[in-house]
Write a structure and sequence with these properties.
The chain has about 130 residues and is an all-alpha fold. The protein has one domain. The chain is about 85% helix and about 0% strand. The protein has five helices and no strands. The longest helix is centred in the middle third of the chain and has 32 residues.
Length: about 130
C-alpha cells in the first residue's frame, strides 16, 4: 500500500469524524442532560449539533475530494459520499426538528430526532469500519 499523505488522509479524516461524533453525541449531550434541566440544555444543543453536522459534512467533502484526487479506494469514496449525504440530511432537518419541539409536536419531534440519530450512527459506523476494506 502506498502511504503518501493523500492516501492516508481519508483514513485520518474518518478517525476525526468518529472522534467528533463520539465526543459530541456520546459524551457532551448525555453529560449536559445529567447536570442541567432539558430547558437549559436545549438552546446549547441547538447551537452545537448544527455545527457538528456541518463540520462532519465539510470533512466528508474533503475526504471525498482527496479520494478522487489520489484515485483512492472505492469503499473510501462511497463512505465519504454517504457521510456527506447523511450529514446534509441531518443539517437540513434541523429547522423542522426545532419547530416540532417548539410547537409541542412530540410525535414529529421524536420521529425527526430519531432520524438524525440513526443517520449520525450510520456515519459513525461507516467511518469506523471501512478501513479494513481499503
Amino acid at each position: 500500500m502506498d502511504l503518501t499523505i493523500l492516501t492516508v488522509l481519508p483514513i485520518f479524516l474518518s478517525g476525526v469524524i468518529v472522534g467528533m461524533i463520539v465526543f459530541h453525541a456520546g459524551i457532551i449531550a448525555p453529560s449536559l442532560f445529567k447536570k442541567f434541566a432539558a430547558a437549559e440544555v436545549g438552546p446549547f444543543l441547538r447551537t452545537v449539533f448544527p455545527q457538528l453536522f456541518l463540520l462532519v459534512l465539510g470533512i466528508g467533502i474533503c475526504s471525498l475530494l482527496v479520494s478522487f484526487l489520489n484515485n483512492g479506494s472505492m469503499v473510501g469514496k462511497i463512505v465519504s459520499f454517504i457521510t456527506v449525504a447523511l450529514m446534509g440530511i441531518c443539517y437540513a432537518i434541523i429547522p423542522a426538528t426545532n419547530s416540532a419541539k417548539d410547537l409541542g409536536d412530540e410525535t414529529a419531534f421524536k420521529r425527526l430526532h430519531r432520524l438524525s440519530v440513526i443517520l449520525t450512527v450510520t456515519v459513525l459506523c461507516l467511518n469506523s469500519f471501512w478501513i479494513p476494506f481499503v
